[in-house]
Amino acid sequence: MITDAQTNFVYFSSLIAERHPDSWESIASILDKHDIKHKFLDGTKDIWCRDYMPVQTDANRFVQFKYEAPYLFLEPALRTIPLEVLQANSISPIFTDIILDGGNVIRSSTHVIMTTRVFKDNPSIGKNELIKKLEDHLQAEVLIIPDHTLDETGHADGHLRFINDKTVLVNELANEYVYWKNGFAKMIKESGLNFVEMPWFEPKLKNEPLSALGIYVNYLEVGNLIVFPIFDIPGNKDQQALDVITRVFPEKTIVPVSINDIGLTGGLMNCISWNILQ
């Protein structure tokens, strides 16, 4: 499995600059300053390119899952057709009929973590059979954590990331639901992984049900650079989160960025990016 630390190129939906020009200017300037090559994907219908693009398992191998989660059918006009994007950008992956969003694939070189949403989205396949197929496709051991029942996407990238092959960075557990903490603890015990907790918070917002503000683990890691979301709003834990990310990645360059306009629509840096090894 190609890890984020091994990647050196980042794609974004061509819609990001149109819909969020100020945030895009901040992101692009960071990438340019640190010599990270980046490019727009043509043919997209929303900005969440992590979800509909394939997963890279080695230098020349990409696996394209089906982008057909039930929540997509609520807004069909915003549903990107992966094949159209792949053809428009000359990308040739291996295809599978398994339904899985890229935001639900958290990777190290040896493991992939995803939520139980993958079982709900593929009810015709038994759980054991599905895990075996996923492991064959991804060439890594698949670990399962609970999905949040209130999260329509059921993605894992709002909960945790890998620091390295042996350690996970997870949202601080104290304020998590009991069922989620129990499921996470089960995964940790069975896998033998270690974990470090990251502060997070839920801002008091009106009429913003999709907001991702307060979720620091949804950062972009590309090579030696981490583009790290901060929020600069009442109740934030920006400094505590920066202290943690700097401590767990002492060798990396950490650059904070405020993209609250994007966060209010449901995602942050990992969601809007697709980073690969070229």
Describe the structure.
The structure is a single chain. By secondary structure, the chain is α/β, with parallel strands linked by helices. It has a single domain (4-276), classed as L-arginine/glycine Amidinotransferase, Chain A (5-stranded Propeller). It has ten helices and 15 strands. The chain has helices spanning 16-19, 21-33, 49-52, 82-88, 117-121, 127-138, 178-191, 238-248, 260-263, 269-272, and strands at 9-13, 37-41, 55-58, 61-66, 94-99, 106-107, 111-115, 141-145, 160-164, 167-171, 194-198, 220-222, 225-230, 253-258, 273-276. The strands form five sheets. It has a three-stranded mixed beta sheet. Strands 3-4-5 form a three-stranded mixed beta sheet, with helices on one face. Helix 7 links the parallel strand 10 and strand 11 (194-198). The model has no long low-confidence stretch (mean pLDDT 95).
Order of helices and strands: EHHEHEEHEEEHHEEEHEEEHEHHE
Distance between the amino and carboxyl termini: 14 Å
CATH topology: L-arginine/glycine Amidinotransferase, Chain A
- Integer tally of domains: 1
Mean pLDDT: 95
Assign the CATH architecture.
5-stranded Propeller
Uncertain parts: none
How many E strands?
A: 15
Helix content: 25-40%
Strand content: 25-35%
Query: What structural class do you assign from the helix and strand content?
Result: alpha/beta
Count of alpha/pi helices: 10
Radius of gyration: 17 Å
CATH superfamily: L-arginine/glycine Amidinotransferase, Chain A
